User: What shape does this take?
Amino acid sequence: MGENKSDSAKSNFLARMSHEMRTPLNAIIGMCTIAQATSEPERIADCLSKIQEASANLLGIVNDILDMANIEAGKLKLINAKFNLSQMLQNVVKTKNFNLNAKRQNLILDFDPELPSQIIADEHRLTQVLDNFLSNAIKFTGPEGTITLSVKKIKEENSGCTLNISVSDTGIGISKDGLKKIFSLFEQVDGGMARKYEGSGAGLVICESIVHLMGGVVKVSSEPGKGSCFGFEITVEMEAPAEAKDTMASDDGLKYKKLSIILAEDVEINREIVMALLEDTGMAIECAENGIEALEKYKANPSKYNLIFMDIHMPEMDGYEATRHIRAFEQDAEFAKYNPRLQLERPEGIPIIAMTANVFKEDVDKCLSAGMNGHLGKPVDIEELMKKLDELLLTLP
Assistant: This one.
């Protein structure tokens, strides 16, 4: 029997994904080999920079594969929370400055001055959509071209606000036939373009699914040789900005020194990475190689610690079970008797943040159900890590 059209498209897609993954892997392995063979600091620094860039590229591909698996299984979910819209937009733009400058492209930011400061939505997924739209605009626009990121407030009702978000460019554009394919899971506009510009073609499919979950529809207008515009409208909840406590010490670098944390992680290199990331903060970090060690450390002196970073898959006792034991210990009458101050200061118990490679929505829900307070995915994002620490500082007396 011959291969049908769907199977052929899927086979071509898998071949592209294999190529896309092997390209950064080749860079990582090659740069490691070069760095090991030289003693020149500048050469080593250059290798490390290229390894970091290739690693970020590879992580993006892996995340796309996971998202696509969730889309096919109908399991792609949103995690809504309050965040600063202006800051999010600035962060997205900042990550694109290098590529924009490399192609001498002009980025126009058309932001409505009436945009709400705080909104409630899935910040990560909204960032993912904008990042994809901007990356495509940069990729398919030539040197000295123009890209416009527009964010407008369309209307405001009660606590809701409708936003119109779009990214337009002066790039190569898309034909009418091409527009029919860009949201197909296993297809690209054409093979020649795939070879010239690289990419798996999965990003727009994922973006369309995210926008749909947010209650919007991605709309595209494009003409070959005259550029493209990708946009959508979504309604989000607004929240008035609250006054934040001033946790800044006279020297900002000293503000974390009040923290003492337990890092529960069985893999030595993962412990080394987190310790290195937090080395300059001055906080006290004690490591536990499994859930039993983490539990015993905390039970021995609960008032000593402010936070536990908890891996999930550990020998002897995993992170879920360790968390349940900690919460049971905190509910014990003897704990209340000997730690009355802790009962008042943190009635829900010590903050426990999962730090795990389990990153699906059901994994996050399982962590919360076990009694954890939050979730950080691996590889660890230093900005997200510091954000969690800053949130913790706001709760300290």
